[in-house]
Amino acid sequence: MKAEKVIVSFVAVLIGLIAAGGAFYLYQATKALPASQTKPLTAIQNPTTKTSDDKTHLFKIENPKDEAVFNKKLITISGKTIKDTTIIVSTETNDQAIKPSSNGDFSLTQTIPDGTSFIYFTAIFPDGTEKSIKQSVTFSTENF
Q1: Domain 55-139: which CATH number of 3.30.70.3270, 2.30.40.10, 2.60.40.10, 3.40.50.720
Q2: How many CA atoms, within 13 angstroms, populate the side-chain half-sphere of residue 101?
Q3: Is 68 exposed, middle or buried (0-12, 13-18, 19+ CB in 10 A)?
Q4: How far apart are CA 125 and CA 84, in angstroms?
Q5: pLDDT (tens digit, 9 = 90+) per residue, 44-93?
Q6: Strands 68-70 and 115-124
Q7: H or E segment to which residue 14 belongs
Q8: How is residue 54 annotated by DSSP?
Q9: What angle do CA 87, 88, 94 make, to 5 degrees?
């Protein structure tokens, strides 16, 4: 008798949940928003990325070298580009945007995680052209 009451109660709760879920679904499916809360959708076109390798789009990473191994987590990143370029330095944990000096030199510090990771460098030149560089760096306290 006691087990039958528990089973009947469980079935009743289950049927109630199904009925409430169905009613909520129908309510949400038929709900109309007022015109003041709706905004027309506009298509966003992806801008085409222009790339160029001529001298007007100089972008060079001098430090660190690709596949460099460091025994310190804080490294110095430096390089050269043209003035008025925006440089974005991205790692797995951090993004930094910097502007070079008037002669095109730039430098910043970045913390790298344990093990091997990638640093992504993107230069956005004044004319909208982009140039990217990907480098691997490794943090290790092992002696080689």
Answers
A1: 2.60.40.10
A2: 8
A3: middle
A4: 7
A5: 555 544 444 556 678 999 999 999 999 998 999 999 999 889 999 998 88
A6: unpaired
A7: helix 2-30
A8: S
A9: 150
